[in-house]
Amino acid sequence: MTVETDESGWEVDPDDEWGVAVITTVGRQLKPRREAAGLRAGEFGVAVGYGEDLVYKVEGGKRIPRQEYRDRADEVLGSGGLTPAAWATFLPYASQR
User: What is the pLDDT of residues 7-50, one digit of tens each?
Assistant: First the structure.
């Protein structure tokens, strides 16, 4: 199952400079982990149950991933809880719509 959604709460408020910086920083941590696991964005999307486009948006700091995405990414990447922990640390600093 692949999920793509444009629900509110996913987009980063472009006027929130601090929030954009935080989401971009944390999102970019996923890309090297994904690449180290030998996964292309499309393959990773299939593995976590979301589309390739959303993977790029999360990694590029354009979208805030939901808890299910973060948990599944952690499982797929074998991060041992680091992926959700990083998001939990920084998400309070980024405003969601």
Answer: 445 677 778 787 788 788 878 888 999 999 999 999 999 999 99
Q: Which two tokens mark 27?
A: 């999102």
Question: Exposed, middle or buried, 58 (CB in 10 Å: 0-12/13-18/19+)?
Answer: buried
Q: How far apart are CA 24 and CA 17, in angstroms?
A: 10
Asked whether residue 86 carries a pLDDT value surpassing 80, the answer given is no
8 A C-beta contact, residue 22 and residue 82: no
- Write down the pTM of the prediction: 0.74
Total H helices, total E strands in the chain: 5, 0
Q: Which residue carries 């405003």 as its tokens? A: 95
Amino acid of residue 24: T
Contacts of 4 (CB under 8 A, 6+ apart): 50, 51, 53, 54
pLDDT at 93 over 60: no
Q: Are 84 and 74 in contact (CB under 8 A)?
A: yes
